[in-house]
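Table S7 (text form). Paired inputs.
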Amino acid sequence: ISPFTAGQVADHLPDPPVALNPISPIVWSQRISFDPERRRRDVLFFWKEATTGAQGSEVAKNLLERRPGTTLTIWCRSRNQHETAARKFPEAKMVLSLSEEELSQLYMDHSFLLFPSAYEGFGMPPVEAMACGCIPVLRPGVGVADLYARDGENSVAWQGDPDALAQRLAALLDDCQRLPPMRRAAAMSIDAFNPEGYGLRLLEAGGAL
């Protein structure tokens, strides 16, 4: 999280334990409608730029090979990315421009958010996904991941080679005992009324500047 972002966020949050979230309507609204059991698809892949798109593609490809029934959705921000991803993964569902309501639905429909970006300053998609009980797969040390991500509890760390990460995701997708608790832990980490959650960590980050 950048010093500027931390300062701006902290200036708009009241004292804990009640810390309203001013950043994303998705984060706030999902504390009401979150359902950890409701998942129709497996992996939402956030394809943002060429480099990380290629890295995420390796994980997605290996996952589909290891677990052929995996349902994959690819979310792109540009038409060029959309066309490239569609060529690489003709079996995937492709999404491009989304309203906040559609994006909330997308997060709630998936078990994991594959977020390979190494360049995010703040990184809202993982935060929004967690609020919807969608477990982020992300690199340690990127954006707000430092504030909330706990590998194996509410997120999956992007570690090892693509095949090792794909193997881990395949095992988790088939583990009906672990997935619901991880979804709940993800949502609680972002709950604006959880004194140990996201709001307090943002306040601590702002106060440390």
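Next pair, protein 2 of 2.
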Amino acid sequence: AVPLPSVPGGFSPVMDLWQERHILLYNPVELAYRSPESARYLAMEAMYCHLFTTDLAGADPPGDPWYARLVRILAMARAVRTGTALHPGVSRWHARFCREEYAPTSLCADRSRIGRLAPPDQFLEGMLFEARTGNTAAHIRDDAVRHALEATAPARREAESGTDDECARIIRERIWPVFEQVCHIPAEYYGRGTGSPGVPPKNPGVTPH
């Protein structure tokens, strides 16, 4: 196992795989606070992402880096869905992880961090929460972000269970147009306590996803 460098900002994996060298990558600061069951789930989540993730960007995808991050999280949700169907026992670790990660006290403590993120990162945080828990991301306070999450929820659910081609079409036609508006919220708007402008950080993994 090799430590994974911390990256400030939005979502970055606590655990990842360097598949070519069969090395587990991990964020030591974040992993230190996880229970053994949660750590096992994160390891399985990372493995599923490498085993079952398919190209959902479609032909000639938008060049906006936020599009790639949107696709990555949707692909993660689909990969975990496939993996847990093959390994039902992982659901116990997943349930333990969600109880710890998204307990009311944890969400309350995390609100200030999320509130300082740029709106696109807040959307992705909310999308990941909803994919993992099946619940609405009510802890996201930005009105524009919450509206975008609500508007795309049906499409995201369809994308998780559809074929690769259906998922790519849903992302391009129904999710990205809404998320793109969040990405283009003027800096003067979200500079007022909802985040700070900037481009998404690169994936901290050592191999491209």
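Confidence is low (pLDDT under 50) at residues 191-209.
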